Amino acid sequence: MSQVHYQPLNLIRLPIVNKLYKDFYPAGKAKRDEILWVGESPQGIVCCVRFKSIGELQLLTGMLVKPDFRGQKMATHLLQHAMPQIKQKPCYCFAFKELEMLYQRAGFFTLHPQQLPHDLQQRFERYCNSGKKLIPMQYNAQP
């Protein structure tokens, strides 16, 4: 496996990430007001995740690993490298059921939807009402 380097994305490269989303995760689209972390190999960007600020909180969203690179712990490494961002302020995510364990290993714990802050609760309900089967989770910042 090629060496992968993980780092925050320079926003000038946003079109490259959006091409990746268009190709492999059409529901996702990076925006200029988000913080993005990427994993990059000599073949280009192979994984990415976005952090959307919502008031005093942040929502980890849009985790994507290119299909050819799945099963190689790319998402785990990306989350480990993005920990400085995750720990900046309360961090939540809406995980697909099959990824719950991935996020738990990264320090997130599962919530009941009613435990979400109001702004996130409404967003979560909208996503679920659109047919997505998601689990709300929050990062547990260890002292």
From TrEMBL:
This is N-acetyltransferase. SUPFAM superfamilies: Acyl-CoA N-acyltransferases (Nat) (SSF55729). Residues 1-142 form the N-acetyltransferase domain. PROSITE patterns: GNAT (PS51186). It comes from the Bacteria. It holds the Pfam family Acetyltransf_7.
